[in-house]
Amino acid sequence: MKRHMAQTSLSGNKRTQTERGVRIAGMGRALAGEKITFGNQTRYRLSQGQSLLDLAEKAANEALSAAGMNIKDMDLIVCAMATPLQAIPCNGALIHERMAKGLDIPAMDINTTCTSFISAVDILSCLVDCGRYSRVLILSGDTASAALNPQQKESYELFSDGAAACVLTKAEKGEASAVLYGCQKTWSEGAHDTEIRGGCGLMPSFCMDEANREDYYFDMKGPRILKLCARRLPDFLNQCLFEADIHREEIRKVVPHQASRALDIIMPRLGFPKGSYIDRVSEYGNMVSASVPFALCEAVNTGVICRGDTILLMGTAAGLTVNFLLMRY
Amino acid sequence: MKRHMAQTSLSGNKRTQTERGVRIAGMGRALAGEKITFGNQTRYRLSQGQSLLDLAEKAANEALSAAGMNIKDMDLIVCAMATPLQAIPCNGALIHERMAKGLDIPAMDINTTCTSFISAVDILSCLVDCGRYSRVLILSGDTASAALNPQQKESYELFSDGAAACVLTKAEKGEASAVLYGCQKTWSEGAHDTEIRGGCGLMPSFCMDEANREDYYFDMKGPRILKLCARRLPDFLNQCLFEADIHREEIRKVVPHQASRALDIIMPRLGFPKGSYIDRVSEYGNMVSASVPFALCEAVNTGVICRGDTILLMGTAAGLTVNFLLMRY
């Protein structure tokens, strides 16, 4: 009966948030078309003529199909992506054009960079639970390759282009599915540890020259991020587990952001032994906002995560933002 | 007693959404430092060394001060802006660095371009009402001047750089303040009527050359937008008024997005006579996401809008997105 342990509290405390009766009705995912390898690490990059819109549309159609629904059934489209496709309009409007042209479904972006999907599910679970929306299509995805710097080996060999999507609906009567607790924190000491400085408002494309060309590339300060995570994550996690009134062993599976190959060092230090969390960094790399929903979708499709399982989505993001979302799938 | 008419329904219908007991506890605004004129139209542009972060910080500090609060009292920072400051991280993290460095307040972006503020208040009113957050700092603002095309007179002479902010909190017992109803729709036939095509994922800065330089400028197809608005707005508005169970005459003041000088043509056609809505286009131009909160802040500061007044925030945005939010201030 291990599967249902999470439904009773071991500690006898009280969870600080009310359950939101929502379910992920369907998920989908898509990988970019070009497969490359760096040693034993496999990565995916956009093939000629392909764009993030293609990947996002494919993932969303798979999610809708898995939910037995049509785009017309959705009453909100949310792009939970880290990077803008254009400075204007928002990504939501551009994916709307691909999938919902002629319909009047509202479209918007919610962005906390790499953990945008977690933030979106946290927020939308409240909006669906309170009745503001009923059936929401959430799309995540990024194409880091558009801005990767071949000179920065660490990031150049880490990222993949991909997308993932889910349909979030109200849980029907008798269904156990729910979001149990969510928590996000941002420590802006890390605001410039992961960034693309150029291309947008603060440093428009017009300002690019040979001297500052590097500012328009993705720039990651890996060791600084790891250090900040090591300082902030343990306390954050303990606070979340306490407020969520849950013990690590009650969690069926942790779906962490596939931040880097350091996942196998960090997760055990946080009290999650190998096997208790999903690590697909070697197979897919870091897919930015798509990492968490992509890994979740794969785990659902392969039976690693089943209905009723208590799962934890968690991750770190440029910001530095950390996100924690506990749900019964 | 005209002021309180809105609290009783004229129609006897039932509003389709539940009231969310929230209040705008304080507001602030900031204009860019350089004042210019085009005929009888006044516009504001960033002065040397000034950035959107300066304006947003000033507006936010004014909002916090008006609310009698400190940044430490906030449990969420939301940037509801149209354009990214950097492709990574999100604007929320960058404003967090300015205002909340060393604190762990979560930061995020919510984006529906020009109506981002309306979407953010709609969403956050639900999150505050259900207890997910308690005191939220919402910042809007854009510096269109970073990408305005001097060759496109219509847009070049329309936009201003500015910011505005509000503190959103739970309404205390006995307070009338509430969000009564919100509705957004997106019609992506208009996705490319207002856009900046270059600089981000679909067309990175590296792709800019002399032939496509115009793609990196703000591009507005005014007549196409007006035509699409004329086709979509009347039905949208009637549906909202019906679902919100409110008559136009029960609304104390409409705060529309200051989209263009056509405001004076469009609003009366929508059944809102001159005087029933705020029009400050001649004084400030279109401040993108800052337009609605800036106009609202000014109206509150000058006593045009008072506590208990039923007000309507509405606007059109690149997307084409339209937004409608009815609240008791």
Model description:
The structure is a homodimer of 329-residue chains. Chain A has 329 residues and is an alpha/beta fold. In chain A, 26% of the residues lie in helices and 24% in strands. The first copy, chain A, contains eight helices and 13 strands. Chain A has helices at residues 52-66, 91-99, 116-129, 153-156, 222-243, 263-269, 281-284, 291-301; strands at residues 22-31, 34-38, 41-45, 76-79, 107-111, 135-142, 162-170, 178-186, 194-195, 219-220, 253-256, 310-317, 321-328. Chain A has a five-stranded mixed beta sheet with strand order 1-7-6-4-5, with helices on both faces. At the A-B interface, helix 2, strand 5, helix 3, strand 8 and strand 9 of A face helix 2, strand 5, helix 3, strand 8 and strand 9 of B.
Q: What's the topology here?
A:
The structure is a homodimer of 329-residue chains.
Chain A: E1 22-31, E2 34-38, E3 41-45, H1 52-66, E4 76-79, H2 91-99, E5 107-111, H3 116-129, E6 135-142, H4 153-156, E7 162-170, E8 178-186, E9 194-195, E10 219-220, H5 222-243, E11 253-256, H6 263-269, H7 281-284, H8 291-301, E12 310-317, E13 321-328
Parallel strand pairs in A: 4-5, 4-6, 11-12
Antiparallel strand pairs in A: 1-7, 2-3, 6-7, 8-13, 9-10, 12-13
Into which percentage range does the β-strand content of chain A fall? 15-25%
The backbone outline of chain A, from C-alpha atoms, is globular
Low-pLDDT segments of chain A? 1-9
Largest sheet of chain A: 5 strands, mixed
- Our count of helices of chain A gives 8
Integer-rounded radius of gyration of chain A: 19 Å
Give me the count of strands of chain A: 13
The secondary-structure class of chain A comes to alpha/beta
What multimeric state do the chains show?
homodimer
Largest contact between chains = A-B, 78 and 77 residues
The percentage helix of chain A is 25-40%
